[in-house]
Write a structure and sequence with these properties.
Shape: elongated
Number of helices: 7
Number of strands: 26
Strand order of the largest sheet: 7-4-6-5-9-8
Helix content: 10-25%
Largest sheet: 6 strands, mixed
Radius of gyration: 31 Å
Oligomer: single chain
Bound molecules: adenosine monophosphate, magnesium ion
Length: 412
């Protein structure tokens, strides 16, 4: 198997997996899920013409030559039903959201009026027909499709679902994900510190990346570099929809992950991608499980989750937007690059008048996890690049935490 371009490897992953089946959820448990059914309006909203302002409902023809005085015949609050018809020379006091009384065709806001007595008001200026009237069905019409299949459920969508009284509806199921670390050198979180060992950070960093997608993964633990033990762990992992194994996918004589998963019936789709970090990535499928053999290096495995695993998981959950947002930026410091592999440089972003400037987060060794911990994004250095000068236009893929990027709000 050759060294695939990143985009070709991404396509192979997405071509191998499918959207999962649907399940029913209640409105209050649905944030972050993806709709698997169309949602329609169950009535007109507003149900009739209503006032958009606190003011007076009147006949616009009566105030063409304003100022003009009108008799107040009724007081209509939101939730009331008007009783009287507004005739020539009359008006009704009306509150925002209250139904328009018959006879009236416009509203004037209270600020443009002066009360003369308890039942007379002076209208200070003319208004056009329909002024400050929200027409029936402006928000939605009975039977309208208001949300389509594939809609990601955000707080705004929750508001629409509640508006149409959708208490339960179909969403796509979330994948069940298992995470396994491999390596004799690894020390678990609950084991005492041993100076000869390497702490297993991958289990936890990968778990958090999966949790950030709204999925609660299962940690299988640490398998030693022993084919029999590895086989036991991998067999458990193959009971899930997605298995993430880190370490042991490279060319070392004790890298048993690929031969063992193949022995267990996983059909390998690719091994090794023209990227840095993340080169030894392996991917395969059984008829029910997608298996990602992630590089052991902590940064490499996280970058592979960003570029391959997260889009796959989102696709399974019915999302159509699979990849992280990219942003143009200017490079703060020059970057050396040998043509051949796409490089993902961990960068911090700073905002200035011209947009964003990107600076590398210190050493880019794939073992230095702090470069990832400090990063706002991954800057893409194209495979063909021969290096980038300071000031070069670059593309940065945003990471978690960058939605709330700025310490101060906008200035107008
Ligand atoms: P490997 O891919 O197994 O050759 O591992 C490459 C490097 O990543 C080695 O230095 C490992 O010690 C390290 N590594 C592997 N798995 C983990 C892990 N779960 N947590 C932290 N480092 C790891
Ligand atoms: Mg290893």
């Amino acid at each position: 198997m050759g060294h695939l371009a990143v985009s070709d490897a991404q396509r192979l992953v997405l071509d191998s997996i499918t959207r999962l089946e649907t399940e029913t959820v209640g409105l209050e448990q649905s944030l972050g899920r993806v709709l698997a059914q169309e949602i329609r309006a169950n009535r007109d909203l507003p149900p009739f013409d209503v006032s958009a302002m606190d003011g007076f409902a009147l006949r616009s023809a009566d105030v063409v030559n304003a100022p003009a005085q009108l008799a107040i015949i009724e007081d209509i609050k939101a939730g009331d039903l008007p009783i009287q018809t507004v005739a020539a020379g009359q008006c009704a006091r009306i509150m925002t959201g209250a139904p328009m009384p018959p006879g009236a065709d416009a509203v004037i806001r209270v600020e443009d009026t002066q009360e003369v007595s308890a039942n007379r008001v002076q209208i200070n200026k003319p208004v056009k027909p329909k002024n400050d009237v929200r027409p029936q069905g402006e928000n939605m019409r009975d039977g309208d499709v208001v949300l389509t299949v594939g809609t990601e459920i955000t707080p705004g969508v929750i508001g629409v679902l509640a508006t149409v009284k959708a208490a339960q509806f179909a969403v796509f199921r979330r994948p069940r994900v298992a995470i396994l670390s491999t390596g004799n050198e690894l020390e678990g979180m609950d084991e005492p510190v041993d100076p000869n060992k390497i702490p297993d950070s991958n289990s936890h960093a990968l778990m958090a990346q999966v949790q950030a997608l709204g999925i609660e993964p299962v940690l299988l633990g640490i398998a030693r570099d022993d084919p029999a033990e590895l086989e036991q762990y991998l067999m458990r992992g193959l009971e899930y929809d997605v298995l993430l194994v880190s370490g042991g996918t490279s060319v070392g004589v004790h890298d048993y992950v690929r031969p063992t998963i193949e022995k267990l019936g996983v059909q390998m789709k690719f091994w090794r991608v023209a990227m840095k970090p993340g080169h030894p990535l392996a991917f395969g499928m059984t008829d029910k499980t997608a298996v990602f053999g992630l590089p052991g290096n902590p940064v490499s495995s996280m970058v592979c989750v960003e570029e391959f695993v997260a889009p796959a998981l989102r696709c399974m959950m019915g999302n159509t937007r699979l990849f992280r947002r990219i942003l143009p930026a200017r490079l703060a410091n020059p970057i050396k690059h040998q043509p051949g592999r796409t490089e993902f440089v961990r960068v911090q972003l700073a905002r200035d008048e011209a947009g964003y400037s990107a600076s590398a987060t210190g050493t880019q060794s794939s073992g230095v996890l702090l470069s990832m911990a400090r990063a706002d994004g991954l800057m893409i250095v194209p495979a063909a690049s021969t290096g980038l000068a300071a000031g070069a236009q670059v593309t940065v893929q945003l990471l978690d935490g960058t939605v709330f990027q700025d310490e101060i709000g906008f200035r107008e």
